[in-house]
Structure formats: structure tokens, C-alpha cells
Amino acid sequence: MPAVLITGAASGIGRAAALQFAQQGWDCLLVDISPAIAALPAHCLAQGAASAQAFALDLTDAQALAQLGRQLAALPALDALVNNAGISDSSGRPLAEQAPAQWQRLLRLNLQAPQALFDTCLPRLKPDARIVNVSSGAGQKAIPWRGLYSPSKAGLIAWSHSLAQRYPQLGVTTLCPGFVRTELVQGLMDAGRLALADAVAKIPLGRLAEPEEMAAALVFLAQPQAHVLSGQVISVDGGSGIYGGSSRCALSTAVPAALQTPLHLQLQAGSNAACDGAWLQALQADAPAHAAATGAPCQGVVSTQALAPAVSDLLEAVLSAGQQFAAAHARDASLLLLLPASAPGDVPAWQHQTALAAARMLVATLACELATQGLRINALLLSPEQATEAAVAQLLPLVRFLAGAQAQFVTGQSLDISGTKESHHG
Questions:
Q1: pLDDT tens for residues 309-334?
Q2: What is the spatial distance between Cα 229 and Cα 223, in angstroms, rounded to a whole number?
Q3: Comparing C-alpha atoms, which of 80, 85, 400 is closest to residue 222?
Q4: At what angle do helices 113-121 and 149-166 cross, to 10 degrees?
Q5: pLDDT tens digits, residue range 111-126?
Q6: Separate counts of helices (H) and strands (E) for the chain
Q7: Contact in structure between 75 and 3 (CB atoms under 8 Å)
Q8: Cα dihedral 19, 24, 25, 28 in deg (nearest 10)
Q9: Among residues 65, 66, 273, 294, which is most buried (max CB within 10 A)?
Q10: Cβ of 211: how many Cβ atoms within 10 Å?
């Protein structure tokens, strides 16, 4: 059975993730400073975990980490490490007025502890292990009066990227949650200190995420199929990270689909017969594996329309695909656009990158506009080699995740999985 170590596992996202890993039969190693962690292994075993063990320790304590390292030596090698533990600063005190003691604890736990824990676990990581670091949308834009929370999360994103480059055999990703209905947030709403309409004012999908949705993303990113995302940041935020509008987003009345809702995936074909054929064949070959699922399925569309057009037509191809998708689905569906990461033929790289940047922003804009209907739009940037039949089959788990119910709080994202320098640097 695969083994995972999860920090911050006693509550919130960490606890939800532990239970979902357990449901899939993983060996669960559960770390938290809270004494409440002691009760979690029994719940994991009840959910189907192969084994479960709790470690109550302070991740900022070097001696405690050394002891953990000695304990891990006698346990199963790790397939995945989830750095989820973290704290915020709710004092409201400006940084200019903070003493070192106030911000040092936050920095040690949020940024330095994940690095120290990785070093501790490295001898016990399998050669192709996956590392998932939980950052925050606050790591991508400054949130004032929360101390060093935003800087610490930005540093975690950067460290994840450098780790992916240093250890290419590992899969290293960063999850950036949006506004999640944790026990703390729900308590604030119950006490009348936080209005739901205010909480979702900058979330295009118009609702809060549930901890189980973050957990579903963590479980996927811990799988071998997620290695193609190594080095990437995955924002599970309902579109808040891409939204730049001044108007308030409407509160959604839609009920989120159950995470295990089956997915009906279809192709929106483009003009490249070979590419379209590879995707159509892969989808048809994959369909029987999911045919036994019961219940009304989620509707997902994979579009190859933007893979083959001339550079001057890339933006038009993305817009056309979005318009066709919106016309065919009144609400509650997902479109995954496939975009060319590198320039075709003799087109200059700078020209393609200009068009690609515009196309990626168009994906985000469409996602914001269509979110009120429960329609999601995301994109994957592919290399030419990833359009072959064999490569397409390997990408299907990622495609199914992004198009399905487990990623229903992901929208407006353009993930570059091409591995080409051009797509990163132009």
C-alpha cells in the first residue's frame, strides 16, 4: 500500500485529506502539534486505511524532527509528503509595529518547517515520491495586517519550484487554497462576525470551498499521475486568484456535486485530424473503465480547437471554443482547453508567446464571466509530443480530474505541463 505523511492533520483540510487517503487504502502517518491528533488514526482505520499512526510534535522543534526521522526509519517508505501545517496572524497589528517574537514563530512554521521536514523525510522518500506543499492565495497577492503570512506563503511557492528543479525525479506541486469553510470560518459565520455574501464577494464561482474539495486535490496531487504537474501551482480558489473586477461576485445558489459524481467527457474537435483522432481514441478507450458509475454525471468537454491554428488565430480559436461550450451547456459543466506551449513551424517564439499570453488571460476572463452559471474553464499547455496517442492516454487522469467534480472549485487556470523552456520564458 502507498504511504503518506500529512502535517496539520488534526483539523480542517489536513483532517479531511487524511480521511480521503484512508478511504483509498493508504498507510497514513499523521502529524500535528494538537493532542487531538491521537484520535485520528482510529477514524482513518475505520475509513479503510491500511495503517494509521499519529505523531504529536512541534514541527519547529529540531529535536522533535530528529526523533521523527528515527521513527520513520522503521515505517513504510513514503510515496507522498503533504506539508499542510501552518498558522496565520490574526492580531491585526501592522508589521512596522511587530516585535521579532511575533513574526518569527509564523515564519518558522510556514516556511522553514516544510524545508526541515523534507530534509528529515528525504531518506525515506521513494525515488518517485510526490511532495505537495500547501500555500495560499495569500502567497500570490499581498494581504495586509496578517503579519508575515503572505510573505511566508510566497516563499513556500518559490521553494516548491526550486525543489522541483533540484529533484526532477520527484513530483513537487503547490496547492493554493482559496476561502475554505473550515471550522474557524463556519464559527465566524455562525457568530455573525462574517457574512457569507461578503466572504464570496471576490469569488467568481460564488461560494466557499469545502475542506473535502481541498483534500481531493491533495489526494490527486499525491498520485503518480500528477508527476506531470511538477513545479506547478494549482489554485483551488473558485477563481478568486484571477478575478480583477470591481463588482461583487454573486452568491451561488447551486449545490456542489458530490466528489464521487461520475464524469461524462466528450471531445470538442479542432482542425488537426491526427490530434483529434488521438484524443477521441483515448476517450473511447477510457470510457468503459467508468461505465459502471451510477447517477447523473458531470459534463466535461476537452477542446483541441486551439492546438493547431495559426498564431494569429489562437485567440480567436480560444474564444470560439468558449462560445461553443457556453451555447451547448446552460450550467454546471467544465471546458478544458488544450493550448500549444511552443510556436508551430517557423513562427518566432516571441510572436507565439504574445498570442499565448493573451489566450491564457482570455481563459481567465471567460472563467470569470461564465462562473455565475456554474461553468468552469481551464487550460493545459502541451508540447507537440503530448498530442500523440500514447501521451494522450497518460494525460487522461489529469484531464479527468480537472474536468470532474473533484476539481469543481478550480477555474480560470492555465497549467503548463509541456516541459518546454519557451513556454516559461518566451
A1: 655 689 999 999 999 999 999 999 99
A2: 11
A3: 80
A4: 30
A5: 999 999 999 999 999 9
A6: 14, 12
A7: yes
A8: -40
A9: 65
A10: 22
